[in-house]
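Practice problem. Given the sequence and the SMILES for pyridoxal-5'-phosphate, write out the predicted structure.
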Amino acid sequence: MAGVPGTSPAGRLDAVLATRIADQKRRRRYRQRRTLTRGGVHVRLDGRERLAFCSNDYLGLADDPRLAEAMAEGARRYGSGSGASALISGYRTPHEALEGRLAEWTGRRRALLFTSGYQANQGVLSVLAGRGDHVVHDRLNHASLLDATRLAGARLHRYLHADCDAARDLLARLAGGGRRLLVSDGVFSMGGDCADVAALARIAGDHAASLVIDDAHGLGVLGESGAGVLQAQGMSAAQVPVLIGTLGKALGTEGAFVAGSDTLIEALTQFSRAWIYTTSPSPALAHATLAALDIVRDEPERRAHLEALIGHFRREAKALTGDRARLLPSGTPIQPLIIGNGDEATLLAVAQGLEEDGLWCGAIRPPTVPAGSARLRITLSAAHDFDDIDRLLTALQARLPSIRETPHA
Ligand SMILES: *Cc1c(COP(=O)(O)O)cnc(C)c1O
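Answer key:
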């Protein structure tokens, strides 16, 4: 009897999935997409305008009319799609130009475009490590780096977040042969704190490991010309041979890249299955990303304004902390506020309250963050102004629970 759960093969499949979904709901980890009818920082959601503090569009470029125009112009010139993988016939002049610009911007010999950061991490780690090799991670590295290591079949090791001594001990204890990679987010995606890249580079050097930095959240935001955490910390390409960056965050478009030596990029084009067997990104998108890089270069005031907003938020948010909430240390646009005891129920109640006040912040729960550290992931953007930040602070002041009210879910 088709359609009755548990009787047909399709019904059995659904029954198994429904059990998992019910469990997800019971644990308050059920997630839902929201359909926006307008983006930017003043989003439209369920027919109402809300002031958003949850995107990764740190420079406010994703809805910049100049990028929309560049994308339209790119589509008129090059068409909407690339039509093939890069090695067949999908590699077009804007792709080549963009790779050149990204290499120059990050101070590296070459760069290679990928469709997404998730794919780039898989594409690079699978070439640099495999069975019998060791990949050492910060415990809070992005999920795509962990998944990439597992898919590569390499041994996955994790050290306590930001604990360089633990990283050193871990590498020192690795027995036998095999290649060694030390991998870290540049800016941690859910904490906003930066890796100590100089320390990691020393450790990698001392233990014959190659350092890989995924700077998805630092590029466009940190450093003199926005070239990211490596520029901000004065790190050279020799110290960090593999840099991964994404284009869907501060750059306001979509896609990712790996930057490094001629040989690294050459090897990826020969051996990276995640890069070889996929359609090359749209050339119109590459054309738009070139325009985004122009804006990042020509409008440093965006970064300066963002930095001023971050300073203002942190100074004023001090009044909110204590029993009610804990603001984690972060000098980047990612400002994590752990609510009460860090449980899911309290977080969701606060997020709901903020929404009633016309504000929208990301409510991040396990497994994206460790259990007991569910948080508001407040992200600031150059498109915000000081009044926006004050509105958020006022609402937080009213909505944060006193610790006694915290339900223990
Ligand atoms: C967002 C993110 C990615 C994934 O990039 P996409 O282009 O969104 O697939 C990879 N690494 C880190 C650290 C990220 O924050």
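Check your answer against the key. The chain has two domains: 29-58+300-402, 65-298.
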